[in-house]
């Protein structure tokens, strides 16, 4: 929609100003987190904090990096998030192709099943899931936690990928069939490469969701050296005296990978939210 | 014709019939994911139902107790409070997110410099992990050193710091605001995509005819956006209804149960009081409510023309 041609200069600048004010308000919490992570401990608790710090220090970052278990929890988060992303996207690309490109008895019913599972409250399955994983000896293990992440990742990634595979024209796939490829070859050599942008968007989504997962990690990883970062930070948060500076520094370190991914691949993210048609 | 011969012809008939009705490759492609979902989601859901009508006795023996856990639930002193809190949390949060998200989408659907950078800036809260959202807001709400109190005091609006998360009157509002910050970009980007897919010519024609902004909004933009808005509304309701981390880490359901919503209560019953049966019964209540949202969600998707 172009409004520029009908708009006076005054209104145009008022609009720019409004956008700028809104953006600053939205980004203020992030800015405040960054400032708080850089301020010396003494300035943290002054009764009249200035918005721009007069003195910058990295003491909180040093303290956090030396904290016992901090680096371990980062390694745990990386292993679990990457593992969960790979597993869910592998299963979901197969499933998305199956639902997106084939009609078979039960295809509608099973697609509705995906939607239902996608929005089920996670707390409603966590008790039985805990017992199942316990019986299999998977509590306190990476595979156990990765399996539990499939509860929310698999329906979501499958659902996203159905849309992306649906957009591949049937003719292209039929051309492969005429050339004598079998169904698996068509999937691997034609469908997968054509759905690549969608697969990237889906994988980014899966990673971001796995990276911030808290409920399963808090419940299924009970030993200290298997904690993920969100669980460790929750521990820091629920102490009697909270080291806010350390918490801010670890939050900054924790959101860094996600923000870098997001800034680098913004278009994929947006396609992931709004679907394949945009 | 001997018996052997007729048996042989029958056999070839059956064989050819089986060959004709070969399994669609689609089923083979979805099978691994469906099997995994059956094991990891459906089976636990069924177990939740089973746990809600059985008593686990000390020897691991189960006795069927019918709906007695549900009766206990509905007559308990906390149930109506939890339902009320959930209602306020979902309705308040969804309303704010829709208002802010839609307004910003309209604002950003205009011409301005550095478009993609600015749009990315508005999406940062949405990629910020939930636990970090909880931490930032807890820090900003801090009664003694929180920036929100500092700003309000220096503006002369309040005399001394308010414990936003520690006061029963303000806690719910405070967590709803943190949810708003985290989730409005989702509404914004969905509506923005809907706006960009709209036919400009109708809009421009109305403009030339002198239709004012709100008239255009009401008679052109909103009707055209309706399919998207319905889906956004339902997804936002579902997100709020299922949200656990924000409330659990910021207030833990407190103070004095003021932010105790269904998801937090289920978790507390199960993993703090070890009342698995009651937790399961409450889960079933949650699932039943969720099924209503799902029904409308699927209907909205179908109306929009998706093949389900």
Layout: helices, strands, pairs:
The complex is a heterodimer of chains A (278) and B (308).
Chain A: H1 9-38, H2 41-44, H3 59-66, H4 70-101, H5 107-119, H6 123-135, H7 142-166, H8 170-178, H9 183-194, H10 196-212, H11 215-220, H12 229-237, H13 244-264, H14 266-274
Helix pairs in contact in A: 1-13, 3-13, 4-7, 4-10, 5-7, 7-10, 8-9, 10-14, 12-13
Chain B: H1 3-20, H2 25-52, E1 54-56, E2 62-64, H3 68-75, H4 79-108, H5 115-127, H6 130-141, H7 147-154, H8 171-196, H9 200-208, H10 213-242, H11 245-250, H12 262-271, H13 276-303
Antiparallel strand pairs in B: 1-2
Helix pairs in contact in B: 2-13, 4-8, 4-10, 5-8, 6-8, 8-10, 9-10, 10-13, 12-13
Level-1 CATH class name of the largest domain in chain A: Mainly Alpha
N-to-C order of helices and strands of chain B: HHEEHHHHHHHHHHH
Strand segment count of chain A: 0
Q: How many discrete domains of chain A? A: 2
* Structural class category of chain A: mainly alpha
Question: Can you give a write-up of this model?
Answer:
The complex is a heterodimer of chains A (278) and B (308). Chain A is built from 14 helices and no strands. Chain A is an all-alpha fold and 278 residues long. Chain A has two domains: 4-57, no CATH class; 69-274, MetI-like (MetI-like fold). The two termini of chain A are 16 Å apart. The radius of gyration of chain A is 24 Å and the shape is globular. Chain B has a domain at 79-259: MetI-like fold (Orthogonal Bundle). Chain B is flat, with a radius of gyration of 27 Å. The model of chain B has no long low-confidence stretch (mean pLDDT 87). Chain B has 308 residues and is mainly alpha-helical. At the A-B interface, helix 1, helix 4, helix 5, helix 6 and helix 7 of A face helix 2, helix 4, helix 5, helix 6 and helix 7 of B.
